[in-house]
């Protein structure tokens, strides 16, 4: 049995759905197909959630945009009398019922209730389309079988219960292909939860672990794991083989190809992970697996835009010791903000986080209760793995850095907003 995961870019339009169907049609093995929301649907649903939570009348217009986007895809793929129209109308009605109700005081709870419709809609369309094309499959609402705690927006999996439920649900005696959602899950009391933004990769890895898959394939709009974003670096190249350890490092530093939590579940059972292009499915892409020998890798470049660099100084001029650090990390955890870089001195602590959080100003206000807060918005964090001095001179040049940090294998630079058309040195 294999697990295939298709991200939003791979099913952003009718052509993408047809391409997915073609890839599935060429397979002759038992499959679990994990699918994300279509295109930028999750972003649209986040906007919808914010409008709903703040009682903004824009919810009607956003809901109309959501419907039109999906109906355009459906009208291209299906005849007018197909049952998909009824299935989608049921989902839209369920979402509209939530929007018509009074919001609770818990934003994260409401977020998960609303955001899940992206995956539910996409998998409904794909399951029905595969059936229409003669690929029999079973639709699975993963919220009933992948169980978590109540840590909304970044829920923790109950592995023991989930394994038991998933083994019953994914019964290959009843179907050879299953279609299910990435990113979303459910509590024991059937409340919807999510596994962290871009968490569909993690879902695929969890199902592979729980059901002992032969391998996992993540289908992307790039030819594999590359040493840089090809949209930013013209000479980016595919890395054909990579260890689990290196993949974990890259995801930690912000590489977009793999979700940070993805590797551990498959590493625990030595399940290979393939990253392949859905545009060129015949290409081999990248395989991530246990590699014993030392594997020489090219320099790897990771850019994180829209960062905020904060420097905290205790108001009482005390040292940044364990107690102060513990408080800072507790506030970061409370607002679900991930540190992308940190550096401390005797009386200050500097760190980078993503600037695009809806709760960022509230986060700053809480820090100001105990610290003097200085920050630079709209900065860039550049990470170079397997660097040398020549590489750094080529990439960074004379651009002044706000923070610079190096280890044996990794160099990081926080820069003011600068052009991104750096040239990778020829090697």
Automatic annotation (TrEMBL):
Tagged with keyword Manganese: no
Gene3D superfamilies: Acetylglutamate kinase-like, Aspartokinase, catalytic domain
Protein's UniProt keywords contain Transport: no
Domain Aspartate/glutamate/uridylate kinase: 2-277
Enzyme Commission number(s) from the entry: 2.7.2.4
Single Gene Ontology MF annotation: ATP binding
SUPFAM superfamilies assigned to the protein according to its UniProt record, in alphabetical order: ACT-like (SSF55021), Carbamate kinase-like (SSF53633)
Binding site for substrate: 42, 119
Alphabetical GO biological process terms: homoserine biosynthetic process; lysine biosynthetic process via diaminopimelate
Catalyzed reaction equations: L-aspartate + ATP = 4-phospho-L-aspartate + ADP
This protein's UniProt keywords: Amino-acid biosynthesis, ATP-binding, Kinase, Nucleotide-binding, Transferase
Superkingdom of origin: Bacteria
GO cellular component: cytosol
Enzyme category, top tier: transferase
Binding residues annotated for ATP, in chain numbering: 5-8, 256-257
Pathway terms, separated by semicolons: Amino-acid biosynthesis; L-lysine biosynthesis via DAP pathway; (S)-tetrahydrodipicolinate from L-aspartate: step 1/4; Amino-acid biosynthesis; L-threonine biosynthesis; L-threonine from L-aspartate: step 1/5; Amino-acid biosynthesis; L-methionine biosynthesis via de novo pathway; L-homoserine from L-aspartate: step 1/3
Family: Belongs to the aspartokinase family.
Name this protein carries in UniProt: Aspartokinase
Organism of this sequence: Butyricimonas virosa
